[in-house]
């Protein structure tokens, strides 16, 4: 409210006097350092720190993007999907040699182990519902024993 009154009355008052009075330095005309309550050197140091922090954040962000791109590339290779050029470019922006975080590497290793188990014959058998491997194993051994006994009794051999 005071600002509006000052701008309306002050502008008309300057027009009336012709702007002859001593000109005051308004709040809007302070240098950025004075506005922050710092000296010029402190302000410059502060600006340098801001720039350095921004560069560090950008570098970390680029690294994270490259890690994600590496993970996507891994899954594309695993499932034989087409490659993505943006992922390759993100990996190269980060320096080309990107390692996955330990947690992600563990997850991928566990996935690979699970798939190897599923790919094996026993893994396929365990995925069949209502199948008792112990009874199946006992039956197979009993059949093998019967074959051995019948082979011993065979007169042809």
UniProtKB/TrEMBL annotation:
GO BP annotations, alphabetical order: regulation of neurotransmitter secretion; synaptic vesicle exocytosis
Subcellular location per the Swiss-Prot or TrEMBL entry: Synapse
GO terms for MF: syntaxin binding
The keyword Transport is assigned to this record: yes
Major subcellular site: other
Single GO cellular component term: terminal bouton
Keywords on record: Exocytosis, Neurotransmitter transport, Synapse, Transport
Region feature (Disordered): 13-45
Superkingdom of source: Eukaryota
Bias-annotated ranges (Basic and acidic residues): 22-32
InterPro entries per UniProt: Synaphin
UniProt similarity note: Belongs to the complexin/synaphin family.
Record PANTHER family: COMPLEXIN (PTHR16705), COMPLEXIN-3 (PTHR16705:SF5)
Name the record gives this protein: Complexin 3
Organism: Chrysemys picta bellii
Protein's gene: CPLX3
